[in-house]
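Researcher: Good morning. I'm working through a list of sequences from a screen, and I'd like to move beyond sequence-only analysis. For each chain I'm collecting a predicted structure so we can compare shapes side by side. This is the next one on the list. No need for commentary yet; just the structure.
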Amino acid sequence: MLKKHYLLGSIALFFLSGCTGLPLDTKITDQYETEIQDHVITIGKDGELRAPLTGDKIAQGGQEAYLNNIVNRIRAYIEEKKSNGKNAKLVLFIHGGLAHEAGALKRALETYPLIKASGKYPVFINWNSEGIRSYGSHLIRIRQGDISPWAKLTAPFYLLTDIGNTLITAPKAWLVSGGHMLNSTFLQEYDSLSYCNNGNRLNIRCTKDNADYWNVRRKLKWIITSPSKVVTTPFAYTLGKPAWDIMLRRTNTLFYTPSDLELKANAVQYAPKYGAPGSGALYQFLAKLEEKIQSNQYSPTLGVEIIGHSMGAIVVNKIINQGFNLPYKNIVHMGAADSIENLFNLVIPYLSKNKEVQFYSLALHPKNEDREASASGLTPSGSLLTWIDNQYTVPETVMSKRSGRWDNMARAIDLIPNDPDHIKRNMHFTIFGIQGRKECTKEELKSLKIKGLEKFPKKTLYCTAEEHGDFDELPFWLPEVWKGAHLPAQGD
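Model: Good morning. Structure tokens for this chain:
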């Protein structure tokens, strides 16, 4: 029995890391119960639309009405802006993996009034990425990409295999984690921040830091917590991978549900093929939005700003490649969990065809990325992106690693094409410095012109990011934050 509880505890330690959310404040929920439905699209594990507050599945007819309501609210907002001679800005925000529904909803509840106060219209895409449930789907629901009626019967074998792999691969896990510790704590292969002084070659801004602030403290913490890492590292190495795979699956079901890809009784091919209408709630929303915008010719007065944190950046890259004729103006990755390869294969080709679109990538300081502590340092060090690179994937080359880690991206930055030359002009990279403080000061809030915070006395906004989960707490809807313009640059 003791061994069983110890195993479950080790699994839980893994799921405490990443893009976790905060408990939901019921008072805030009651206050904005009606209005939140104008700004939140909650999507279940198979791409189905769900009620944001209860989590109940919305029937097909109700789904149509729910999405139409949001699209009509956006239309009314555009018309209001147009009547006042102003351009409208729609913000689509997609959170990352390992996010609990309550935490994602809390963020939307506290943030959408602030975004509206800035003159923009926010829509939060809250998708099912909770870690323990993702691992549960791997055990009892999904087999080789399909929903299987036999999954529950075979679950014990999958669990035993996962535990067995944990024991078998423990030496490799210790070597990989130890190598990461050695490289990030004691060795420096190269100085990726040298690109901050690259003249006019690229739009790269590194914000000022206190370079030695965490250095000694983190080394000591690593040494003190090392015994626990010996135990938890193998479990994090093997048990997180299936959850990661299920979450990747769910970035796809946002667009195409399992029913879309069933073999129909009287069909000779799978339907629909990619490019045909999908029944995923996000696909349906984008399709309705495109139809409304195009039919009313709002494109000249509307700019769509699409922002993704962590795995949300994977969803962003899928959105811009779905073929919707939407007036995207700004594409923002915050600690992107997608690969550099996909940045080159999906984002850059889109930028080459759309000269007016600006791309922003926000990253942690490499030392912060590598030395982030999860579960009070009891699990392997590093942000979720380092876990993905080191534990959940086997990168073929550097191009297969996460584009949101600056140490990775700096190695591929010179591969960004010069032809057409506007691509480099339209790509912006901001690397936040090492800081001893994350919360915005009154002066910073004033300079960023943040309005509406008086309604949320307990709401804390960050003006820099030190850990992977901090990006969600930034005023992520403001261009000044994307550019790091609100903070002094390195060398100032």
